[in-house]
Design a protein that fits this description.
Blueprint (H helix, E strand, L loop, with lengths): L2 H16 L19 E5 L4 H6 L6 H13 L6 E5 L6 E3 L5 E3 L4 H18 L4 E4 L1 H4 L7 H4 L4 E5 L7 E8 L2 H6 L4 H17 L1
Parallel strand pairs: 1-2, 1-5, 5-7
Antiparallel strand pairs: 3-4, 6-7
Helix pairs in contact: 1-4
């Protein structure tokens, strides 16, 4: 059986057993494996991702399309996933279910599963989007490390740890809320594109 399919079944069974208020749908990564050029790691799925059962669709998908256009890669060349596989939600003041950042408990529960996923996918390199994804590997913030290559230790729960090249980026959504980051983000994308071309 495909190891990624086994992984998904075991992950779903683990979180189904934890669920106390109904099963929350998990959104798994997608893309070529093993050895895609990059594995892109976001924070968590949103509403559209949960409905369509695919990472980075809806508004996030538009962000991803712009990202790919800048670095000159097709989506089918990348493996795309999130740290947390379930949509973190809260009830807004207007009574609507809206997205929220993942809690520490959610990140702690899902990070070992992310490490196992990376060990199966074996990308050539990782690109993290935002602090949640970056801090699955290091304590530093995106503000400290963005726009240049570093190394990530991937430590699956079983099996040996290994390192991969890691390129941290701000989350594309952060540019929407903080327009002053847009130039920095563009420069970082161009640096990533140039480094991939030079490899």
């Amino acid at each position: 059986m495909d190891p990624l399919l086994t992984y998904r079944k075991e992950c779903a069974a683990f979180f189904d057993a934890l669920a106390t208020d109904g099963k929350a749908p998990l959104v798994f990564g997608e893309g070529p494996h093993p050895h895609p050029v990059l594995m892109l790691i976001g924070e968590a799925p949103g509403e559209q991702e949960t409905l369509q059962q695919r990472p980075f669709v809806g508004k996030a998908g538009k962000n991803l399309s712009a990202f790919l256009e800048t670095i000159g890669l097709e989506r089918n060349a990348l493996y795309v996933s999130n740290v947390v596989k379930v949509r973190p939600t809260k009830v807004s003041a207007a009574g609507r279910l809206v997205n929220r950042p993942p809690s520490r408990e959610e990140k702690e529960l899902f990070t070992p599963w992310l490490m196992r996923e990376i060990a199966i996918v074996r990308p050539d390199a990782l690109v993290t989007l935002g602090n949640v994804a970056l801090q699955a590997f290091v304590k530093d913030t995106v503000g400290q490390l963005h726009g240049r290559w570093t190394r990530a230790v991937v430590a699956p729960p079983s099996g040996e740890a290994f390192t991969l090249p890691l390129f941290p980026l701000y989350h594309p959504a952060s540019v929407i809320y903080n327009r002053s980051l847009s130039q920095v983000y563009q420069q970082d994308l161009e640096a990533l594109r140039d480094s991939l071309t030079a490899r």
